[in-house]
Amino acid sequence: MGRRRPHGRPVSGILVLDKPAGITSNAALQQAKYLFYAAKAGHTGSLDPLATGVLPVCFGEATKFTQFLLEADKTYLSTFCLGVATETGDSDGEITTESSAAAITESAIAELLPQFRGAIEQVPSMYSALKHGGTPLYKLARAGIEVERPARPVTVFQYDIIDFRPGEKAELDVEIRCSKGTYIRTLAEDLGHKLGCGAHVTALRRTQAGPFLESESISLEKLESLREGKQGEDLDFLLKPIDAAVGDRRLLELPENLCWYFLRGQPVTAPEVYREANEGDIVRVFQSQGEFLGVGKVLEDGRVQPHRLIAG
Fold it and tell me: Of 18, 48, 90, 190, which residue is the catalytic one?
């Protein structure tokens, strides 16, 4: 029996989507995929239903490069409610404790924030999508099961106060730039614990994911408006090129004779990379005429081994 043909067209590129609140990242992905009538799509880092903002969606050949966006640093704007702790660490969860935050001052918070900057360790929330024995933690939590979670190293590059509104249930607006795997709700909970009043996230917006900015994003509502009465291909002008996913990597141009070997999975000699890059570095590889071929990994001897290739 032959392979089933995919439903949709073979479009490739990256859409910088502005995910709305109230739906999962996968639901947003499926709506974008439908509007573009794309055969294949994948997103690059889930946002909770509560959260909004930058969600890069990769179509077609661009899905081969999602790992680089998953591993990229992210920036968030978030609001914490001080004085209330919840089961989930955000406003979607049941309240577990309440206490007055009236005595909390902005200066007291500012004194604590350096403890959460730099290389730190976080214990993931039981309501995260991390898996334990193949089951997402949030499913275990909803079944009343709690398991031990080892602390994981993350890096918080920026953690700044944007605004503070004092009161019994004080509100704190922060901007956070962090490495992959950082949980903003855990930062809120840990800060609330240090302050002695509890805290949870009430609003979360991702403003940057890797090279992609909030200013470049487009909403589902706008996509639907542009798509009305038209075809999926009429939206293709919104797509960024496939290599945008690795736009921060070193560029390597190969002459045509080396491209032949590279595209067949063979390492190629690239002396300029040997001088400028380190073993294990990922480089984006182009044919000298400008065509993107994929990414390669620098070997110990300076040759470049194909790592992810665009289908010819």
Answer: 48
